[in-house]
Design a protein that fits this description.
Length: about 400
């Protein structure tokens, strides 16, 4: 490809989906990905697609995304494994039930169809596999889940069909800026001239932003994930809990995929064809204990795979989605704080708008980087690192 119009750094769901929208409109797009598509968060993820439990600022994006998910398979010509089968957020104690009750009231006021289930019978009517000790839950019937690798591949393949170039196994070292304009991206192989660069590098975004004095405040916790062998169908909704210390779902192939909450990361990231984070034994034991307390069948299941993933968490757990005011042509998409998968279909359209210098189709005030210097956003009604 001659010099592209737009270079996207990062082949996660956000980079691949933004590449698709830009390429299908005829723009020359190159995606620079150090490993392979979905090598990091977009492959490590639980892949819940939820509106429930979202910060009020993010809820409009989540609702718009759920609309888009409905026709994504047809649009991309591939099976993303998307299922709109609900999200159950469980309360294991009376104090957790209070948190859930408040969440339901707040989000119902915001117009979301979120129901409060006041006892185990109502919960087990929706998910019979849930332990009878669970005292209450919220249920959002329009939430769901998808297959993360299939979704990223669907976006990548569609982008490639429209002419996007994927430069895999190539790391971006720096963004070249002359005056106050982006002029190129320097990789570990070449310099690529371009007027627009989209940084969608997940936990590594600051490697490129800090040299430009545009650091996004991020902390990087770890989430441990266990995947079982295939089991008979038993659980349709995605599971979460009031305090966000576990999440889980049954994949459409029958495997349970269950996770811890956000935990302190020990700091080791092993390099290889894809980066690997090994969870601690204590963290794995904690997932087994907490998840089997609400989903007893886990105790009997055979474990097929264990891994951990990293989250790019901002101080208010909302992402940065902006065209940087300081440097013309620089678009930033990072800090998705453990819930960027579900909203990716709308995030990608917003990145398309920002990359083209068009007015964004939804207000992005809450996602400006400058908010951190201005004192942050309003308080959250749910724990900041909620995922699933
Ligand atoms: C365990 C876990 C569970 C989660 N559960 C959910 C959930 O249920 N629902 C939900 O909505 N979200 C969830 N999330 C969060 C969600 O997965 C992420 O927010 C989303 O995948 C982020 O996508 P991304 O494209 O921004 O980043 P990533 O997928 O991390 O992609 C960034 C890519 O950029 C590449 N890169 C970085 N720097 C460079 C560079 N300099 N040069 C070249 N390439 C570079 C990396 O290799 C990587 O592939 C979860 C995350 C984890 C880890």
């Amino acid at each position: 490809m001659a010099n592209p119009d737009i270079v996207i750094v990062g082949g996660g769901i956000n980079g691949c989906a933004a590449a698709y929208h830009l390429a299908r409109e005829g723009h020359r797009v190159a995606v620079v990905e150090r490993y392979q598509p979905a090598a990091m968060a977009s492959g490590w993820t639980l892949a819940g697609v939820r509106q429930s439990g979202r910060d009020p600022a993010e809820l409009p994006l989540a609702r718009a995304a759920v609309e888009l998910w409905a026709s994504l398979d047809a649009e991309l010509g591939a099976d993303t494994g998307y299922r709109r089968e609900g999200n159950l957020r469980l309360a294991r104690t009376d104090s957790e039930a209070e948190i859930i009750h408040r969440l339901v009231e707040d989000q119902r006021q915001a117009g979301l169809d979120l129901r409060y289930l006041a006892g185990p019978d109502d919960i087990r009517a929706i998910a019979p596999a849930i332990a009878p000790t669970v005292v209450a839950a919220s249920f959002c019937p329009t939430d769901g889940h998808a297959d993360p690798l299939a979704t990223v591949e669907a976006y990548r393949a569609a982008a490639e069909r429209h002419g996007a170039e994927f430069r895999l196994g190539e790391g971006a070292r720096s963004i070249e800026v002359k005056g106050d304009r982006v002029t190129g991206v320097v990789t570990d192989r070449v310099r690529i001239g371009c007027a627009v660069c989209v940084v969608a590098g997940g936990v590594h975004s600051n490697d490129l932003l800090t040299p430009l004095a545009l650091t996004v405040p991020l902390r990087v916790p770890m989430v441990t994930v266990l995947q079982t062998d295939r089991l008979p169908a038993m659980l349709k909704p995605v599971l979460g809990v009031a305090t966000a210390d576990l999440a889980g779902r049954q994949q459409i192939d029958g495997r349970l995929r269950v996770t811890s909450g956000a935990e302190l990361w020990h700091g080791a990231l092993e390099d290889g064809p894809v980066p690997v984070v090994n969870p601690t034994v204590e963290s794995v034991a904690g997932v087994i204990e907490r998840v089997s307390a609400v989903l007893p069948v886990l105790r009997e299941a055979r474990i097929a795979r264990i891994w951990a993933g990293l989250l790019d968490v901002t101080p208010d757990a909302l992402p940065v989605i902006e065209r940087a005011p300081e440097i013309d042509g620089l678009v930033i998409a990072t800090g998705f704080s453990g819930h960027g998968f579900g909203i990716a279909p709308i995030t990608a359209l917003l990145l398309r708008d920002l990359a083209l210098g068009a007015p964004p189709r939804m207000p992005l005030e809450a996602f400006r980087r400058a908010r951190f210097a201005e004192g942050g956003s309003a308080g959250l009604t749910v724990p900041a690192a909620l995922h699933g």
